[in-house]
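Title: Prediction job returns without error message
Component: structure pipeline
Severity: low
Priority: P3
Assignee: unassigned

Description:
Job completed but the reporter wants confirmation the result is attached to the right record. Sequence as submitted:
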Amino acid sequence: MNTIIGYSKDSRRQIGKMELYKYLESTYPGLIDIKDNEGNNLVHSAVWVGNMEMLKVLLEKGLDINDISEKEKIVPLLSCINDKTDISKHLLDMYPYSIDTRDNCGENTIHVAAWCGNIDFLNFLVRHGFDINSTRNDGKTVLHLCCRNSKIDMCKFLVKAYPHLLHVDDHNGVNALHEAAWSGNIDLFKFLLDKGLDVNIKERKDGNTVLHLCCFHGKIDMCRYLINNFPYLLRMTNLDGHHALHAAKKGGNVELLNFLVKKGLDINNTR
């Protein structure tokens, strides 16, 4: 449920202008306190659409900047997800404690900036005290996140400026190369190989290879690249004894499944 002075969740577009908001708020004051079914209040709406004037008015009305809502994220994190850098900077000026604010996944604003690939904003955050080495609850760094989201320019920047991040695994033993395989970005994958990451390293939790990961997520071009350049990966298994075909089955990509069968994997093999 979104109120008439809220926003459309699907389109992220503003429903009303400032004049309409003022009219509705004065005529129907109870609307300002109504949240939608996911717990979003009007502050989240103002941040999503990038309306600084609306945001200031709502905060003056006493709406809570710390409400967790959209995907369990706190308002200062939402601002950079939607690439509203001006609002992000404004919020950091108003609420400097948000440097230490995290959502339920342990993400703070610098993680979101990396995910979105916003290099200028990430540098701004570092200058304002954010720790480039901070990790989420699952141990993922800013490099993990930009690789997962296929942000190659951010990845290149981080590797050049903070090369030690290349050698940080998350809590499941996943490194940046695994994330690049997951994303399906071949150019990013090649870049990380050139920087010394090992194509043979398995992630620790399930023992999956980079081929398992791209097969599970249906990245057929990455799969072709890996098999053409590292054909032995076809025969490598994870901790359950499963090879890439099992990962493709779980992912549900029929084209990829047929491709692997043509490469010699046995669809009837349960191990």
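Comment from assignee: result matches the submitted record. The chain has 15 helices and no strands.
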